[in-house]
Design a protein that fits this description.
By secondary structure, the protein is α+β, with helices and mostly antiparallel strands. It has one domain (32-262). 18% of the residues lie in helices and 25% in strands. The protein contains four helices and 13 strands. The strands form three sheets. Strands 2-3-11-12-13-5-8 form a seven-stranded antiparallel beta sheet. A four-stranded antiparallel beta sheet has the order 7-6-9-10, with no helix packed on it. Strands 1-4 form a two-stranded antiparallel ribbon. A hairpin with a 2-residue loop joins β11 and β12 (227-232).
């Protein structure tokens, strides 16, 4: 293909447009009426389904605007969390380096929470893969003694039998992977110890032995720009307590935290620089030919 000076300039303009086009997070496919809600300041009062009083905090009763929230909402928003010794121990085992307050990677102000406007959970949702694509995943954090038996994966939306592992139980915090997902998808959590705990973003598929038939949403989702943060509550219970108690849960959704974005096909800056230099050279050569003609 022969480039004229005009074509070279047009190609550079196209490259610039390609780089600056905004990238958005994977669209959420949920129940009618659910949507992205302003997370605002977490209170740890369970006023919103993900806003539980975390057992991992180094303060006993947070709630009502206390200064040390540690649930997924506060962490996604960039608030540092002061952990108690038990939580520090669990976090250290899973590969996290805790120096002072823990701050979640990829966090920041502006994240919105998926759910209903009244603060309740959307019990059935997944993600639109827009015909299939590559996604970059990162393990962001784990505050649980079960860190080495937690498996995270994706499944074909509506078919929980079609499952694929993203992070195996041995994956440490900071692990990354790139996954091709060909269809609309949800996420699952599996406790690989054999105790039967398996949770899906479509909670009607959840399997929890020795519990009643009440379904809960064990996943919380937060989005900002191109990035989605997912938090998992690894205990199913109808009893919420501010401190650890057998058979209870805190629903702080920080037991497993991971994030993902669509894998970018945008060239790296170095590639763009070489592309620009090449096109500029073609344009200069074309001008010289025109001048000599």
């Amino acid at each position: 293909m022969r480039f004229t000076p005009t074509a070279a300039v047009a190609s550079l303009a196209l490259a610039a447009t390609f780089v600056t086009s905004p990238v958005h997070a994977a669209p959420i496919l949920g129940t009618t009426g659910a949507g992205l809600q302003n997370a605002s300041a977490p209170q740890e009062t369970s006023g919103r389904f993900w806003d539980g009083n975390s057992w991992d905090s180094n303060s006993l009763l947070d709630g009502a605007g206390a200064s040390n929230p540690c649930n997924i909402g506060s962490l996604a928003g960039g608030t540092g969390c002061g952990l108690n010794p038990a939580a520090v121990g669990a976090a250290t085992q899973s590969g996290q380096v805790i120096a002072g307050n823990f701050t979640l990677g990829e966090s920041g102000t502006g994240f919105q929470a998926w759910g209903n406007g009244d603060g309740t959970a959307d019990l059935s949702y997944g993600f639109d893969s827009t015909g299939g694509g590559l996604y970059d995943f990162r393990m962001l954090g784990e505050f649980t003694d079960d860190w080495n038996i937690n498996e995270i994966g994706w499944y074909d939306l509506g078919n929980p039998q079609d499952r694929h592992t993203i992070f195996s139980a041995s994956a440490a915090v900071g692990a990354t992977t790139q996954v091709f997902i060909p269809s609309n998808f949800g996420f699952y959590y599996l406790n690989t110890s054999g105790n039967g705990e398996m949770f899906f973003t479509q909670s009607r598929f959840n399997v929890e032995p020795n519990q009643d038939a009440t379904h809960k949403q064990q996943f919380a989702s937060f989005q900002l720009g191109e990035f989605t943060i997912m938090g998992v509550e690894d205990i199913f219970s109808n009893t919420l307590t501010p401190t650890w108690q057998a058979g209870a849960a805190d629903y702080d959704y920080n037991d497993v935290m991971f994030g993902f974005r669509a894998a970018s096909s945008v060239p790296e800056p170095t590639t763009l620089l070489l592309l620009g230099m090449g096109l500029a050279g073609i344009a200069l050569k074309s001008r010289r030919k025109l001048a000599a003609a």
